[in-house]
Amino acid sequence: MINISDSATKLNSLNRRMFILATAKIIILGGIVSRLFFLQVKENKKYLTLSDKNRIREWKLPPIRGEFQDYFGNTIAGNFEAYQLHIIPEEVEDFRYVIYRVKELLELSEKQFKKIVKKKNEIKPWETLIVADNLSWEKFSKINNHLYDLNGVKPVISISRDYPYKENFTHVLGYVSQANENDLLTNENIKEKFVPGLKVGKTGLEKSFEKKLIGSNSVERYEVNAYGRRISQLAFQKGDKGETIKLTIDTKIQELTNELLKEKAGSICVMDIYTGAIIAMHSSPSFDPNSFVFGISQDEWQLIRNNPMKPLVNKSLSGNYSPGSTLKPIVALSALENEIISPDFTVQCKGHKNPLELYGQTYHCWKKEGHGFVNLREAMKQSCDTYFYEVARRLGVDRLSVTAKKFGLGQKVFKDIFDNEKKGLVPNTEWKKNALGRNWVLGETIITGIGQGFIQTTPIQLCLMTAQIANGGYKIYPKIVANDNNQYADKFTPLYKKSRNIKIIQDAMFSSTNEVRGTSYRSRLDDPKYKFAGKTGTSQVKKITERDRELDLKTFQIPYEERDHALFVAFGPYKNPRYALSIIIEHGGSGGTVAAPLAKELFKMIVDRHEIRKNYDNKKYLDI
Amino acid sequence: MYQYTRFNNKNGFFQKFGNLDYILLSCLLILGFISLATMYSTDGGEILFHTRSHFIKFVVFFSMMLVISFINIKFWFSLGYLSYAVILGMLIWTINFGITASGSKRWIDLYFLNIQPSELMKIFIILCLAKYFHRMKSQHVNSFYSICFSLIIIFVPMSLVIIQPDLGTSLLIAISGIVVLWFAGLNHKYFFYSCLLSIISLPIIISFLKPYQKLRVLTFLNPDRDPLGAGYQIIQSKIAVGSGGFTGKGFLKGTQSYLEFLPEKHTDFIFTLFSEEFGFIGSVLLLLIYSIIIYRVIRIGALSRSYFAKLFCYSFGTSIFIYVVINMSMVLGLLPIVGSPLPIMSYGGSSMLATMIGFGIVMSAKTHSQQSIA
Q: What is the pTM of this model?
């Protein structure tokens, strides 16, 4: 038996301690409630956002790419509906059966089939597996007819890039293909809008105008669970199609350039001499950009890559060529402007049997018998080299380079629009000293006078040069996008000192095409409506040796790589000039026989199309 | 003679029935109902395995509690040491023949159910220690012998549970035991010094922790150090509670649990789900129900005649309070994550069984409040 007083002490102590604990408990409870209050009432907004971030996920859909149109509103790069086949593996009861059935129906090769199965194993079961991205209508309808047998297979119509004119616009537009890591790193815009399978511009205008073309993603908002599976769709936000970009190019002329350059390597550029609008710009050989849209096959790619004519190079912009005799108008103009010579200045040409000897070097004219006594007009007409050796010697390379640069040589014509455009090279004494560390030699001045040596130009530069001579010597800025409203302060500023000098050059070029013994006389058009003026050029790829001169081989007898480039620049119609062009055919032989005849074909169409273009413009004004 | 019969009648069945604490009973029933509703929500608004199983367990163990209420408190007093020994035996059995689940041996297979002896130990250690101190004269409580003996009673099951390994439950067992020591009148200075000692030795203890346990402590200190790994649970739990707001997202509308962002939502984290769906109001109400239950348990202790009943009720009530506080602090990010269920709310048979036995004994103390124990 416990004694009473002890029991009372124990109970007292127990109750006292209970009281202490009860107080502690109330404090702790208060702590828990205040924590709850803090989380649920005070910080509620923060956690609500976090919870929504958890449960709501957005899926971006590929944006619809903007189109390219030619001057007349024809779509030259558009979108078409691609027939695709999607499978969501978890929605398929028997994946093996279905995939074999699909293989059978689509007649997939063993390699393709393995690729699909591999892809399936890489994705989550609720993600879309793209079995085929561009089916023919026959196969697509075949699948549709067998759908009863293919549970979980989804035929889908998706939007994809289409180039209806195939190889015609390849070098202007470039092409699109699946975005790769590099695209994402270099372009913020692509990164922001990226979805798997997004096609982005890889070269040309498709690349430079990516930002305008790409459009904005449609967004699907889903509620997802912790494993990322979609539970229900909450919203759909439609994106905008990319901008439509209208070019100044006339598809008809562009197609003709492609036709004319078929089987040849080279370039044709056609330009409006007043607005600077590019009417046609083609580089040959070209390739079909459509084959890049869904990924090009390895064989096809190797074929394009290893072609000796270099289809991947845009020759119009990134082909650096010696201008050859097409530089002569600038040499003559520079000499006139600097009052080195008068139009009546005469030089005796004895032909390459009796070459000009200067400082121990010999300089040959192309013509064996020589031209005799020639003045400026005659020298331009017959493209007498001896005359221009002498002019260049008197002029000096520095004064020549000033004029050449003024007329657009040696600098990018399109600024930043094309990332593959080359600058070319207009040499002067200072340049050589800086770049090569050696002094300029007079002999180099002399060959620069006939467009050989260090000087390098691109076809588009030659076209611009010709255009600026043709329009009376006023500065223009070439453009390829129709509504390019860049205002240049120095547009139409005169590039000449005396406008008479420009007239003399124009007249000399006219004689070259339209008068007997002119180098392009055989390519003339007699109808005054189409009459044009031009200057041929033949640029040497390798130095001509004495032996070569002895042999005097025909073009086809020389190995392809050693043949001369054929060049021709022209403007027309002569009475009222409106268009300028440059033609270059790599390893084509002489400019007069190979390049000039193409101009004849072109001017016929260019002049005819001018009427249509004018009418289209007028109608456009009426519509507004 | 008349007095004697009346006294006898008072201990009769109907008398006992009348003596039940109906406020406590109804609070337990309400809690049971809430836990069922929450379980229904964890099953995604369907009656699936967890809801069904929880319902059966609640009904069976609640009835068992009622049965226990009618058993004389003296019976439980006499069973104090024996039951402790039996559970100890079961713990040893667990170590050798236990069922391994998620890396620890915690359960023993009793054919019709798997039982977790460590959960039962939380209650029976109180019973055992209450009996031990019931007999002791107050001047002996602080004697060296009695302190050693009671510490052994605590340390043996604790270490058996630690090697399972189950740090959370072993800590809860220790806390239950220490609570009894406190009520028994152990000198304050011992608690003060041992607190001091454990704080000093904390770095050493941490160095002995298993890597995953260390990770939990680190995660508690900064959950954002690994938001998708170790910190995931606590971050998602806080998001769920916080996004519940003042009134909650509504029953069956807790997106965090419905979309499976919440881990362990049936067991340790059930309060998170409840709090997400019923908000601040609901959480405070739940706390209120727990408070009433604990208050009633302590009140029963206060009204009991015997020291044993008082000691048990006070200790049990305090232990329940501590379990609730630890669980809630854990899911609210106030304590590191240790496995500790929320009494009655969490899914788990052994925990429910132990809790109900505890309430049964308390209720028995109520119906036999006039019973004195020699």
A: 0.69
